Amino acid sequence: MKIHCNYIDGEWISATSGVANINPSNTDETVGWFAHGDARLAQDAVSAAGHARAAWAATGPLQRARLLEAVAAGIAARAAEFANTLSREEGKTLPEAQGETQRAEDIFRYYAGEVLRQAGELHDSIRPGVTVEVTREPIGVALLITPWNLPLAIPAWKTAAALAFGNCVILKPSEVAPACAWLLADVIHAAGFPPGVFNLVMGTGAELGPALLDNTIVSGVSFTGSVPTGRRIADASIATYKKLQLEMGGKNALVVLDDAELNIAVECALDGAFFATGQRCTASSRLVVTRGIYDRFVEEMLRRMSQVRIGHALNPETQIGPVVSQDQLERDLGYIALAKQEGGDLTGGELLERPHPGHYLSPCLVTGLRNDARVCREEIFGPVACVIKVSDYEEALAIANDTQFGLSSGICTTSLKHASHFRRHSQAGLAMVNMSTSGVDFHVPFGGRKASSHGSREQGRHAVEFFTAMKTSYIRA
Ligand code: NAD
After folding, report:
1. Domains identified in the chain and CATH numbers
2. What is residue 449's three-state secondary structure?
3. CA 82 – CA 85 distance, rounded (Å)
4. pTM for this structure?
5. Where does the pLDDT of residue 403 fall: very low under 50, low under 70, confident under 90, or very high at 90 and above?
6. Less Cβ around it within 10 Å: N or C end of the chain?
7. CA 328 to ligand 1 center in whole angstroms
């Protein structure tokens, strides 16, 4: 039995036991065995990164750019292996997994270019004969903690940015889907980074978290995951004044107005609510629909949902893959039962039999509930969406904003006035017009407000805010 090992200080750390990574499309199949690190291993990773940080921070931009380019090329060379692994460990369809693999490659190329575009500022001082220089320095050692739903893209966008801006990295991927992060570590190893600059620590958050967080060597934590975990990480990090970037859950509203193009609205809602099995932080889990189009919208949604093909992620016919794990399936089914208890009318949300044993669940549309129902307020993170009927645009906007979250939002309308007003007044980090609430570009800022995010934005050139610290120097010639 091959165990995929942790990677510390430029070495693969041999392990005698591992945990099985199970394919959700076929639970009889094991994708691989992955080492589970403990507190001691976490400390070794912290020390390795701490020792490597000064030399790495001092490397020139061209060397860093070339190494990041080599990672992009390494991902491209093994793209089929990445996509196949991603489909098997997470349950995304092959085209979805291929898209995520391409994104990871593009992200490394983007940050290879970004390294060479860094610049500082020069100011005349208010004091004669003095110049003020503003520069950015790496924060030092960055701890990157990632979830299972984008098991390649999120490790890629955090790692590429952290390395580009001169930081050493400890990557702690989700124990539910660590295979893509392991493959990424293999590509980074082959690219030839100095030892200790990149370290991979696989295992549970509960076991690794304290050792990774209770030290003064890690200077910043970039976390993506659920709100309760984010809160725990924030509490632990503040004791040692770590810089924090938290990207968490969502309960994103897609508003559909009477004047919307029905086909566009239904396309956006289907994609946002159900594709990628609804397992997206930007999923349209609340569909806020005005009275005049409500019946036609629901009827067309149900018609289209009945045609969607759910199955094995690697089957070319499949449009929606399985739920990632037994735990997540139980969570989804729990919320489906709650929706019934709360008085909702449900279509779908049934377990499906397929030739292979897997976590197959049909998309579930809930109608007849108000925005104060628990299923309309709490993140489910599965293929379940509630349709909320409202009178007009003003009520739709108020309902869209009436949530603890603020990640993504969208509006389907042909009214320029309402689209413009919504973009300005949606209390979310992302506002989409006639587009799905999910699906974002990698070269522009990504993040939310309220309980969805804390700290500066990820991705694009704005990632520099988190991964560097500013220095202001006063120089008298
Ligand atoms: P999770 O919070 O359970 O786990 C996320 C990561 O945190 C995992 O690697 C886990 O091992 C680690 N962890 C858990 N406890 C820890 C601790 N005490 N100390 C240190 N690390 C710990 O989340 P998940 O189930 O993997 O992912 C789903 C969640 O991620 C959803 O809430 C979803 O909305 C969110 N998400 C957000 C974004 C975004 O950009 N806003 C993107 C994708 C997913």
Report:
1. 3-248+452-476 (3.40.605.10), 253-433 (3.40.309.10)
2. coil
3. 5
4. 0.98
5. very high
6. C
7. 13
